[in-house]
Amino acid sequence: MQKISYFLSYAYSIAEGIESGSIDRTKKELGYLSRYYLIDVYSKDSNRFLAKLPSAFYMQNVRYFGIPFSTSDRHLDNARFLRKISSILMLIEYYFLLPFIYRKQLKSSSAAYICHVSGAFAAIMHKYLFNSKLKVIIKYSWNWSLFIKKDRNAIEQKIFSFFERVSLNGSDMILPATEEIREYIEKIIKKKKDIRMLPNWVDCDQFTVRNQQKEYDIINVGRLAEQKNHLLLLESVKEYYEEYGVRLKILIIGSGHLREKISGYARDNSLNVTIVDKVKNDMIAEYYNKSRIFVMPSLYEGHPKSLLEAMACGIPAIGTDVTGINSVIENNYNGLVCREGSGDIKEMMHLLITDIEKMRDLGKNARTYILANFSFNSIVEKLRRNIE
After folding, report:
1. Fold identical between 3-198 and 216-373?
2. Which of 118, 201, 273, 282 is least buried, going by the fewest C-beta atoms within 10 A?
3. Where do the domains of the chain lie?
4. Tens digits of per-residue pLDDT, 105-124?
5. Predicted TM-score (pTM) of this structure
């Protein structure tokens, strides 16, 4: 049986996946691929942590490797300097030490699949230092450079942009999730590459239409960070009440440093907002089905899984007209695309809430669209064939 290396993104770890509830996606993909390959999984988790993983992670043909000296920075929220130092040390270990520490294991792999370009540098280093025959395949589902420009200082932007360019140019195959990402890749690579489209997948058996009582008018799922633009959603809800006299019930699923600011705005304006920090991936579908409308007011996106999953549940979606959203939502067919303004979102929420037939049609078309383009089996089978 062929052996492959499976690298998690530098922006993600198994520990973070367990904490956020999103790890089930990784486990499902590994479960499928492990039917065809022996898989060594590499992450920025510490080996001490990986040694204590629950038994559910130990599926046949899958092994886990971390970095020996890593200490998580997830619990250093009030110590920014210490968090920064921890992040730098973790990067050094994951990018530069891992290819040497696991030289023997990596050399026995025929291919390295990288879940996102931010996790690719170690595989590229190993390829050029020890194993020129290693086939490096990079999945690119969100624009790393765009996110870096919004979240990092100028020095960090240059450093991470360097890692991105080296990784993309050193790879053998790149799998962008959208045409916009493909166009971006083609601008920065120096020579022609094997580029094949591979969107994110949705478990359409799990994320499906259920006959559940609606408890929330609006649902949003995403990190509580500036990019997700939650305050715009709450401004829209406030204006909705002021104009129509209806206090909408809002559910936000996510955690992040803006929680207090979002909660404070909701409290100061007497909005009916519930924030749930952590929900296991298999429970999110239940919340979608308890909600009438999914709203994504983001400033920018990659290929947002939460939007795809909401649409798979037959929930009509409203999203801002930005990269990553407007390539998924076809306006007035499987959802509504709006300008970035509270007034536009308010009017679209009102349109759907007062037109049940339109809400039903958009939700039905959304489900059909996801089934046709993003179902788990078809997308992961494409991935498997690309690895071969």
Report:
1. yes
2. 282
3. 3-198, 216-373
4. 999 999 999 999 999 999 99
5. 0.92
